[in-house]
Amino acid sequence: MNPKILIIGACGQIGTELTVKLRKLYGTENVIASDIRKLNTDVVNSGPFEVINALDFNQIEHLVEVHHITDIYLMAALLSATAEKNPAFAWDLNMNSLFHVLNLAKSKKIKKIFWPSSIAVFGPTTPKENTPQYTIMEPSTVYGISKQAGERWCEYYHNIYGVDVRSIRYPGLISWSTPPGGGTTDYAVDIFHKAIADKKYECFLSAETKMPMMYMDDAIDATINIMKAPVEEIKIHSSYNLAAMSFTPTEIAAEIKKHIPEFEITYNPDFRQKIADSWPASIDDSDARKDWNWNYKFDLESMTKDMLEHLS
Ligand code: AKB
């Protein structure tokens, strides 16, 4: 039987594409999209849509009851750069929306949860290359602290209350169809828009800042696959490391130059540099590969080609 899905934060960077894919997979009527406002006309007009506040438990519970929801994908969050500007609200949104959903599962009103974590759970004392699944985690951003605490709570709710919650530590995500949402890795999306429009880009990170990244198609596949995996395959109940490619601004600029030879990049690092410096450069995702057969399709070359084709 198809799951009955509620996506909270459906108009955001991941939510938009996730909604489309889940509707194709499970049928439009089985996927209820929701967000705080009607921010994306495609999402709003392509199937059932509800305006809700992720911080309002009663609103979420009401939707769960009315639509007989079995699975919730909680995609609402403040990302790293935005969260630094509003720490109290970021903590409130990122943590309390998670508690609402975990508590619905604890009281058996829903069966399964997807909750996104991030490479931001790591910090400056974490090994930078091939960052292991289990390692030192001392996040230095509000976003990272909220994601790390969230991971601990997911594992706790699984161990103590038997909640089926599944999670991925997303790297930076790159997509042509949705604008970035206030993250530190967002330069890797902006750069394509500026390369096409202006043939030049001023990067807010320094030339050699290497970070883990992933094309949105792969991120959506990972999300759907971890949710589809039989419960016994899910061995990690905090969050899985996930990787595809790692590159620096210099390297992505060189790849773009192969298609747009006039393209030039300059560097003017801002407050986001410190955030990027505290994150891993590459990730060891062998547990995800082993447990639920994770693999990626897009590398830097194929991602760049696909981005430019779609945006042009
Ligand atoms: C961000 O840059 O904040 C996000 C993330 C890595 O979670 N893209």
Automatic annotation (TrEMBL):
Which SUPFAM superfamilies does the UniProt record give? NAD(P)-binding Rossmann-fold domains
Q: Which Pfam families match?
A: Epimerase
What sequence ranges are listed for the domain NAD-dependent epimerase/dehydratase?
Answer: 5-235
What family, per the record? Belongs to the NAD(P)-dependent epimerase/dehydratase family.
Question: What organism is listed for this UniProt entry?
Answer: Flavobacterium hydrophilum
Tell me which CDD domains the record gives.
Answer: TDH_SDR_e
One biological process term from GO is:
L-threonine catabolic process
Per the database entry, which stretches of residues form a coiled coil?
A: none
Q: Entry's Gene3D superfamilies? A: NAD(P)-binding Rossmann-like Domain
- Tell me which positions the record assigns to the signal sequence: none
The name this protein carries in UniProt is NAD-dependent epimerase
**A single GO molecular function term of this UniProt record:** L-threonine 3-dehydrogenase activity
Q: Which domain of life is it from?
A: Bacteria
Span-the-membrane segments of this chain are none
